[in-house]
Amino acid sequence: MRLTLRVWRQKNAEADGAMSTYEVDGISPDMSFLEMLDTLNEELILKGDEPVAFDHDCREGICGACSLVINGDAHGPERTTTCQLHMRSFEDGDTIVIEPWRAAAFPVVRDLVVDRSAFDRIIQAGGYVSVPTGSAPEAHATPVPKPDADFAFEHAECIGCGACVAACPNGAAMLFTSAKVNHLGVLPQGAPERESRVLDMVTQMDTEGFGGCTLAGECATACPKGIPLVSITRMNREWLRATRASGKR
Concatenated DSSP letters for 57-120? Predict the structure, then answer.
C-alpha cells in the first residue's frame, strides 16, 4: 500500500503547530496503525528528520495510551484502540489525516502527544476505595449480587484513553468520570464514600476545564470498550442524590 499522511507537527506546547505531508510506501494491510507510523519514523530518521512523536505502550488495546484522531474519528474508523486498528481498514492510495486529541483539558505536548493528567486528577479526587491496613479480607466475606458485579465489571473496562473527550463536540469527560464513579459506587466496598466520591470527582472534572455534557452520544460511539451512555444518566442521578443529602446546591 502507498499512502499519503497528513500529520500534525508541533515542536512543543508553546509553539504553533501545522500539518505536514508525508508519503509512505510498502505498507502491509496486516500492519497495525502504530506499526505504519513506526515505518514512517524509520524513514524520517534515515533522512535526518525528526520522527513523529506519538503515545503508545502495551499495543494490546489495554492501556489506552495510543490517542490519535484519524480522519476525524477518535482511534480511527473502527471501534477499537489505535494500536488494534489495522491498515486493511484503509485503501491503497488513501490520504490519512492524523491529529492529536483536541480538547482544552488535553494540551498538546509535542506532535501527537497530549497531556492527559487531568484524568489522573479526577481519579485522585475520589476514584478509589479507602480500606484499613492489614491482611486481605476473605474474597467471599462480602457477597456481591451478580447484576451488580456485572455492572461494575462493565464500567471497570474503561481504560481512560480519552476517546470520549476527543469525540464529544463539547470536549466533555462525563463518560470517563461516570465509568469510574459507577464502577465503585455499585459495590459494597465503595458504599461508604459513595456520596463524597461523585461530588468530588464531578467538581474536579469541572475544575479541569472539560466541556459540559449535552448527551450528544458521540462519546459512547467512540469508546473502544463500549461504556454505555446510560452511565452518564446514572451518575447524574447519583450526583443529585448526593447533593441533596449533603445540603449543597
Answer: S-SSSSS-----EETTEET-SSSS-GGG-BGGGS-TT-EEEEE----TTS-EEETTEE--HHHH
